[in-house]
Specification:
The chain has 143 residues and is mainly alpha-helical. It has one domain (4-140). It is built from six helices and no strands. It is globular. The relative contact order is 0.11.
């Protein structure tokens, strides 16, 4: 007789949601967020204005994310340099959308409303990770 856990593990939705790709994306998403947060805080403490520190940290984190997503999460390989450059362009272009969401949120909630920057940056990170996964899965690294 199958246990409830066995039934859940064999369910189609479970298999689509919990798999090597989504788990590794979550792990590397957390690591990318840490890279982003450390870069942001370091730049901010060096006297870089809030929004400038945020986009500079974004560049560092997105570069890290591209490398780990390409090789470890989506296991994507390109046959030519042009194909790789196209994929890289899609990756950074799609990430500009999530940067826009984050910058707008930081501007409105931190700069204008004065809410504690780490609270807002943390909340926005969850939204950004979801947006980025959707773009990566459906647009950039699609099989």
């Amino acid at each position: 007789m199958k246990t409830l856990l066995d039934k859940i593990k064999n369910h189609t939705i479970y298999k689509k949601v919990i798999n090597r790709e989504t788990v590794s994306y979550g792990i590397f998403g957390i690591l990318t967020t840490i890279v982003n947060f450390i870069s942001y805080e370091g730049l901010y403490r060096l006297g870089t204005p809030n929004l400038t520190a945020n986009w500079m940290a974004w560049v560092i984190a997105v570069t890290f994310a591209y490398i780990v997503n390409k090789w470890s999460v989506f296991r994507s390989r390109s046959s030519t340099i042009n194909a790789e450059l196209a994929k890289m362009g899609k990756f950074y272009g799609a990430r500009l959308v999530s940067l826009g969401v984050e910058q707008l949120g930081m501007f409105v909630f931190v700069e204008k409303l004065g809410i504690y920057r780490w609270l807002i940056k943390g909340a926005l990170s969850i939204i950004v990770i979801i947006i980025n996964y959707i773009f990566s899965k459906l647009y950039i690294f699609k099989k």
